[in-house]
Amino acid sequence: MSNPLHRTRVKICGLTRPEDVDAAVAAGADALGFVLWPGSKRAIDEARLAELAARVPAFVTRVGLFVDQEASLIERASAHLDLLQFHGDESPAFCASFTRPWLKALRMRDDLDLHAMAEAYQGAQALLLDAYRPDMPGGTGKTFDWSRIPANLAKPVILAGGLTPANVAQAIRAVRPFAVDVSGGVERAPGIKDPHRIDDFLRQVFLAQSTDFLDKT
Ligand SMILES: O=C(O)c1ccccc1NCC(=O)[C@H](O)[C@H](O)COP(=O)(O)O
């Protein structure tokens, strides 16, 4: 994103509690992520999704996270979601088979060819890039080498993986992503967000792009 007027969008992920949804909305988050994969410490079930999604106001995007799950579950959950985020080995055709726009999450394993993935998943709204750990499909709390992200990728980038209030400004300057995505960096414990850290994260994003704007105009 080379436009100095671009506002880096923020997604707060792994929300499990009403008060955390409210805190993220109040802080100015653009999108909220709900993990529907039962293997996660941040997993919620469909009833909880319905409850949390109903609190989200207009113009804030409700994103559901899935890892190689049944189409029937994704279809039911879609009633409460604006966007789907796929973290497993889902094919492009599977991702595109629902009534919602979607993101493909990619873990930055050493041999990952991002240009090839952008081509394969060209139906995605964006690629969410996260750290690779063989035993975890997401939410690792780890950063990766941001210099591996090519500037000319054919899809918008959502930068994830180990972002915190302390490093998000540096990440934005290094990568210039469409959006940043955080989970562990704004938590007190897995699935339990800290409203002060959420505020601080949003503030750091705002400051990073404000100084960038002033530098360029
Ligand atoms: O959070 C999880 O437990 C999880 C489990 C399975 C798939 C995805 C999952 N989380 C994805 C994310 O929350 C985002 O990729 C996140 O921004 C990165 O997490 P973190 O490094 O903790 O900020």
Domain tally: 1
Largest sheet: 8 strands, parallel, barrel
Mean pLDDT score: 95
The CATH architecture is Alpha-Beta Barrel
Helix vs. strand class: alpha/beta
Q: What is the CATH homology-level superfamily?
A: Aldolase class I
The CATH topology comes to TIM Barrel
Tally of strands: 10
User: Whole-Å distance between the termini?
Assistant: 16 Å
Give the helix tally. 7
Relative strand content? 15-25%
Shape designation: globular
Return the CATH class: Alpha Beta
How are the strands of the largest sheet arranged? 1-2-3-4-5-6-7-8
Gyration radius, rounded: 16 Å
Q: Which molecules are bound besides the chains? A: ligand LARABZUK
Q: Helical amount among residues, as a percent range?
A: 25-40%
Task: Give the structure's gist in a few sentences.
The chain is of the alpha/beta class.
Task: Write up what this structure looks like.
InterPro entries: Aldolase_TIM, PRAI_dom, RibuloseP-bd_barrel, TrpF_fam. Keywords: Amino-acid biosynthesis, Aromatic amino acid biosynthesis, Isomerase, Tryptophan biosynthesis. The chain is globular. The protein is an alpha/beta fold and 217 residues long. Helices cover 31% and strands 19% of the residues. Helix 1 packs parallel to helix 7 (195-216) and helix 6 runs parallel beside helix 7. An eight-stranded parallel β-barrel has the order 1-2-3-4-5-6-7-8, surrounded by four helices. It has a two-stranded antiparallel ribbon with strand order 9-10. 40% of the residues are buried. It has one domain (9-216): Aldolase class I (TIM Barrel, Alpha-Beta Barrel), CATH 3.20.20.70. Residues 13-14, 33, 35, 37, 40-42, 65, 67, 87, 130, 137-141, 160-163, 181-185 line the site of the ligand O=C(O)c1ccccc1NCC(=O)[C@H](O)[C@H](O)COP(=O)(O)O. Ligand LARABZUK binds at residues 13-14, 33, 35, 37, 40-42, 65, 67, 87, 130, 137-141, 160-163, 181-185.
